[in-house]
Amino acid sequence: MNEPERRQRDGAAGMRLRWIFASVLVALFGVVLVARATYLQVFNKDFLISQADARHVRTARLSANRGVITDRNGEPLAASMPVDSLWFSPQELAQAPEQIPELARALGLERRALEQQVARNVDKDFMYLQRHMNPADARAVLDRGIPGVHVLREYRRYYPAGEVTGHLVGFTNIDDEGQEGMELEFDEWLRGRAGRKLVLRDRLGRVVEDVERLELPSPGRQVTASIDLRIQYLAYRELKAAVQQNRALSASAIVIDAETGEVLAMVNQPSYNPNDRAQYAPGRFRNRAITDLFEPGSSLKPLVVAAALESGQWHADSRVDTSPGMIQVGNKVIEDKHNLGAIDLATLLARSSNVGAVKLAMSVPSEQLWNVLNRFGLGRPTSSGFPGEAAGLLSHYENWRPIAKATLAYGYGLSVTPLQLAQTYAVLAADGVMRPASLLRVERSPIGRKVIEADTARAVVAMLEQVVGPGGTGMRAAVAGYRVAGKTGTARKFDVGGYSEERYTAVFAGVAPVSRPRLAVVVIVDEPRAGHYYGGDVAAPVFSKVVEGAMRILAIAPDRLAPAGTAFGPALTAANAP
User: Fold this and answer.
1) Sequence ranges of the domains in the chain
2) 576 pLDDT band (50/70/90 cuts)?
3) Rounded Cα–Cα distance for residues 327 and 359 (Å)
4) What's the pLDDT at 572?
5) How far apart, in whole angstroms, are the C-alpha atoms of residue 510 and residue 493?
6) CA–CA separation, 57 vs 71, rounded Å?
7) According to CATH, what is the number of the domain 59-96+104-224?
8) What does the pLDDT look like over 558-568, one tens digit per residue?
9) What CATH fold (topology level) applies to the domain 229-279+287-553?
10) Range scoring the smallest mean pLDDT among 71-80, 170-179, 369-378, 428-437
């Protein structure tokens, strides 16, 4: 075999060896890969899945919708709207510092401040960027693909009636937790329970797949308030107009359904809009109708008359001698504007005689007078359960000196809230029965507690009707077509060194219609400064307009026919009722 042939043969043999060697290597590599894959897929499967889940599967929160608050007719007072909140992981964002300026621009934040925030919290996994954003705005930021930035669905509270119901409904904080009003009182009912789900995120933290729902969110319960939004609007409008007209410091008005104890309206001035967090100041969102105390003045006299009737010493036709128009108790001389002489109890109330009220109070044993006032609920909170409700002040009769008992007869030396005073008049309207003051709609009239005899309550209401009649102090509270009863009150406010000669609280409290009392209404105007300050001039007109509108809204039939051109007419009877 010549040399060229030998070389050709050796080359072919070498090629076969190299091919065999390469084939063996490829085969071995394939065997190793198959073995490795088999090991990973069969023997190490759980470990790999857990590692993948740790990097890409997260537990996400499913926000729960807070319960709706409605008025008694289903009109929404507080509802929740879906919003998005952006949050970020400082650990992830710190790994892409070049993205921080873009994120700051997108949210209108200071770049340096955001960089410092990331640097200070680099060991944390969760921090809010911006809360309660419009979902479209949040999505625009998220679509920039900035590492570590995520979105969370939340809910923001919205109050359709705004400042009309602000004091009653209250508000929630940014975490949807009740802070004031009904939002706080019924927070446990309204608050939902958040759910949880497993989600799969990509390397930028974006959710690419919902894996599994671990727990469904549970929405909060609906709360149906007792108020009628139509009457609430009416009372708010009239009270606001009165405050502006009289340049008053503040005011409150309450309407109670005497048959059920439900609060149909509760308004205050000045008010605030719970949709605007810039208005959240304690001086503005305090519900004065429940938290603020005042001396009721002459509006307390009907309760003193009721106590006198309950004692058995006095009757509806009894007369009290107020001559000579003054009375001295200790070192204090108590006077009426005029010497009214011998008057009956109805005239005592109609002309608001301080001397007559003092003589009645001084004739009733202190313990008995205190018991009647205590049964009316003075000196303790009502059953409303409203946060921050004041108890008022009624000192024990054992602490009464003669002058304290005398001044109490015309509403000084004790304090009440507007709601307490409204509840006492609701007792008179309900034939002497007190029902719990409720801010929730009730399905049936609750069983009440007897405070005074029905005959006593009816007699006092009949007397109070004369207050609104010709010659009474409350003529401006009259309502065309309806018989109404009530009492004026004008109390001097306590100031440094004694009672002020310039600062007053004007009050009118009453019930309507007299033939079958349904509503108890109280109006308090604090420090009117436009010239008039008597309850009959400042508060009574508000009472009249609120009652007139409420009667129409509730479709309560008129119980008085009035001849043309007059404010008063004969009471309706079964024979002439329309």
Assistant:
1) 59-96+104-224, 229-279+287-553
2) very low
3) 9
4) 45
5) 22
6) 44
7) 3.90.1310.10
8) 987 655 444 44
9) Beta-lactamase (3.40.710)
10) 170-179
267-281 CB burial, b ≥16 within 10 A, e <16 = bbbbbbbbbeeebee
Find out whether 374 and 394 touch, Cβ atoms under 8 Å.
yes
pLDDT tens-digit series, residues 169-202: 999 988 888 999 999 999 999 987 766 656 555 5
Q: How many CB atoms lie within 10 A of CB 50?
A: 11
Q: Residue 19 and residue 25: Cα distance in Å, rounded?
A: 10
d(CA 325, CA 304): 19
* 156 CB neighbour count, 10 Å cutoff: 18
Total residues belonging to the chain:
578
Cα gap 289→265, rounded to integer Å: 11
Name residue 457's amino acid.
Answer: A
State which amino acid sits at residue 239: L
Q: In one letter, which amino acid is 153? A: R
**CA nearest neighbour of 309 among 522, 449, 465, 451:** 451
How large is the average pLDDT for residues 150-164? 88
- The pLDDT score that the predictor gives to residue 293 is 95
Strand locations in 173-230 (E): 195-201, 207-215, 223-224
Catalytic residue annotation: 298
| pTM (global) more than 0.85 | no
Instruction: Please give the average per-residue pLDDT across 428-432, as a whole number.
Output: 96
Please identify which residue in the block is written with the tokens 């001559």: 323
| Residue 452 predicted with pLDDT over 90 | yes
CA distance 471 to 301: 18
Strand, helix or coil at 221?
coil
Which residues sit opposite 269 in a β-bridge? Answer: 251
